Amino acid sequence: MPKPDAIKVALVDDQLLVRSGFRMLINSQDDMEVIVEAGNGREALAAPLMSQADVILMDVRMPEMDGIEATERLLDPDKKAADGPKIIVLTTFDMDEYALSAIQAGASGFLLKDAPPEELLESVRTVNRGDAVIAPSTTRRLLDHMAPMLKKNSSQHNAHLVAAVESLTPREREVFGLIAEGFSNPEIADKLFLSEATVKTHVGHILAKLEARDRVQAVVIAYQTGVVTP
Fold this sequence. Notes:
Elements: E1 7-12, H1 16-27, E2 32-38, H2 41-46, E3 55-59, H3 67-74, E4 86-91, H4 96-105, E5 109-112, H5 117-129, H6 136-154, H7 158-166, H8 170-180, H9 185-192, H10 196-210, H11 215-224
Parallel strand pairs: 1-2, 1-3, 3-4, 4-5
Helix pairs in contact: 3-4, 6-11, 8-10, 8-11, 9-10
């Protein structure tokens, strides 16, 4: 049956069994459906329906074109609409550098490939909403694991990042710290005794000042500048 208001999901993975499992899981939900699949990055770029997806689940290691290059091309600001797809990168602990590269390429978050089904589904919903960190526990674990790499890779840009963080107002800095710890907007509102609308306004200002695409990018900056440490 058609699902007119469903979250449109795209699958990019070279393993057919993995795609089949994800497809069955996603299509079993009333609020989401798979609209297109691809076996590698090159196929993803060539698929017309890919740009119509709300969320793309992207494997990292694939033949012909990997998930990092595909993410960069799909999210090229000259080629996509402002409301284009959001990308979740599928990774494992032994591929931290790939995950970091994908986040820096513009992915909205990453998820362990062996994550529980309910975590994958909630991550799709979270990224589609655009107002909460994808799978906070997974993001925090992986970023903690990657902290030394983040510090090393950010050294040449650190002065710019530090200046951006220092431009935040005291309240924005407070909200920024809670974002970096993985709290959602409702949780931040509860902790700071603010309305959720006020928190959203602060988050928008923070992302603009940090020149961050989304909350996950902001979390990465928090690690790079020492606002959060493992």
